[in-house]
Amino acid sequence: MAENSGLYLLRGLRGRCPACGEGRLFRAFMKVADRCTVCGEDLHHHRADDFPAYLTIFLVGHLVVPIAMYVEIAYQPSYWLHAAIWAPLVIGLSIGLLQPLKGLIVALQWHMGMHGFAAAKQARV
Fold this sequence. Notes:
Blueprint: H1 7-13, H2 51-75, H3 79-112, H4 118-124
Helix pairs in contact: 1-3, 2-3
């Protein structure tokens, strides 16, 4: 069990069913499927709510702000250049991280048996 302990998290990051790793976790960009089409695992119990957005803001801010500060101190570019560099980077990182982080949170809730996933956890034990 120790060697596969984080496998469900990797599956969630990849947008796959945390139970089987084959079915799609999402039916749309941020809409979690009601159940896995491969193994039939119920996924509608998740309560990710705004936590993926909070994590995205936290991570993107902690990645971009130190780099932007370094660039400002070292090179002192004009404001339009800052905007041209950092706005696309922040938007791209935010969109790119949002779905994987939501998948990670749903997989974590599934693994821990949170919310409606308690029955699924009991069946695995």
